[in-house]
Amino acid sequence: MDALTLYGALAVGAMLVFYALEERSAVFVLAFAGACLASSAYGFLQGAWPFGVVELIWSGIALRRWRLRTSQRLPYSATMR
Questions:
Q1: Rounded Cα distance, 81 and 72, in Å
Q2: Three-state DSSP string of the chain
Q3: Is the separation of the CB atoms in 8 and 39 below 8 Å?
Q4: What distance in Å separates the CA atoms of residue 43 and residue 17, rounded to the nearest whole number?
């Protein structure tokens, strides 16, 4: 396994873990956004630019959810509407 493949596996694995933990704290929503950025970078570095673009969009969505959740202090389920 080369370094780029290992980086991609770690980035996608982090996305999975942080997504599963999002209900526990807004910090995990922000961590998910960061993991999406890492996955986006992997997509572009690997040459799969559609994957990179989609992950970049997911990162923006997660950042918006984090901002809404922290600024309004709403329960997690209220930010998903």
A1: 14
A2: CCHHHHHHHHHHHHHHHHHHHCCCCHHHHHHHHHHHHHHHHHHHHHCCHHHHHHHHHHHHHHHHHHHHHHHHCCCHHHHCC
A3: yes
A4: 19
Question: pTM for the complete prediction?
Answer: 0.85
Q: Which residues of the chain have pLDDT under 70?
A: 73-81
CA 54 to CA 68: how far, in whole Å?
21
**Residue spans per domain, the chain:** 3-79
Quickly tell me which residue has 């599963």 as its tokens: 20
d(CA 21, CA 19): 5
